[in-house]
Specification:
It contains no helices and five strands. The protein is mostly beta strands and 136 residues long.
């Protein structure tokens, strides 16, 4: 029995630092696969580099502002159909020299999308009683 990829997806993971409340997001490539013993696994990569799951403490990245590590939560996902797909799925045979620009194209970074607007949870925002002036 061989290892079989059962799902491919891009998952956008949102992080909110519990220390400084900075928010950011990163895209991860995810493969779900079944090994030759029938066990299901998932494999994460970011910018082509294997990483631990961002949903676990071992894979929690550091906050870009304060360096603390925070587990992410799924914000959005895009499944990628696994080949060969349903009958009559469009496909092209790759011939020698097919789209040579692919070899030199710049990598699309995992954080190359618009980042969330920084915000603070309402319980951490100053209320109307807070004054912008110093003590009187």
């Amino acid at each position: 029995m061989d290892t079989v990829i059962t799902e491919l997806a891009v998952e956008r993971v949102k992080f909110t630092c519990g220390q400084c409340w900075h928010e950011w997001s990163t895209d991860y490539d995810v493969q779900h696969y079944r090994d030759d013993t029938g066990h299901e696994w998932e494999y994460f990569s970011k910018d082509g580099i294997a990483v631990a799951s961002p949903y676990t403490p071992a894979g929690a990245p550091p906050c870009p502002r304060c360096g603390r590590h925070w587990v992410g939560r799924l914000l959005a996902r895009r499944p990628i159909p696994t080949p060969p797909g349903p009958a009559r799925t469009p496909r092209e045979k790759i011939e020698a020299g097919h789209r040579p620009e692919r070899q030199t194209a710049p990598l699309l970074g995992a954080s190359a999308h618009t980042q969330p607007t920084p915000s603070m949870p309402s319980e951490h925002q100053p209320g109307p009683e807070a004054s912008t002036q110093g003590p009187r």
